[in-house]
Task: structure prediction
Amino acid sequence: MKQFEISSKLQMSLYVFMLLGVIAMGVTWFVDDEFHTRFWSNFLHNSIFFTGISFIALFGLTAFITAYAGWFSVFKRLWEAYSMFMIVGIVLMGIIALGVFFGWNHLYHWADSNSVAHDSILKGKSGFLNPIWYALATFGFLGLFYLVARKIRSLSLAEDDSEILDFSHYRKTKIWAAAFLPIFGFLGPVVIWQWVMSIDAHWYSTLFAWYC
Result:
């Protein structure tokens, strides 16, 4: 099997584009309005997009494993790699969560206590839409997702390196995958409701998370 390796030239190109992205974000900060609305909205949009790819890749892996699928094995390393991005997602979404908690950004109407006090809908949802619960969902749930992704990844690598031809690693992987699915089914929508749907806290949808 041919091992894919990123050449030094490609690595340099990727680093250059990442640097350009950081510079563009910096420019946005300095030319934005007083609340840095464009900067924070761009930061939120990109963080959710790539973090979402990572945990939907984990969902796909666990669903295929639980369903006894075999066809995905030829490219499962890619999806395992996608799921490993979640540690970066924790950092990115953690910055958003800290911004909500300490008032660095104004992404969410419900984060303003004065607005909540004068809005019956926001007040009614304040038990769920508040900075503490937002931070708990971001760090706690994403942290749990990452631990599962890392465990499944480690079992997958151990299975390849094992000199004993048995199914012990596969059985362990199957247990982790089956246990994760109901957890993801509940917690996945919760973080989407927090991160995206609550931008317009007066509106709600029971299917919004799956549309995302």
Observations:
- The CA atoms of residues 134 and 204 lie 17 Å apart.
- Residues 131-161 form the longest helix (31 residues).
- The mean pLDDT is 90.
- The radius of gyration is 20 Å.
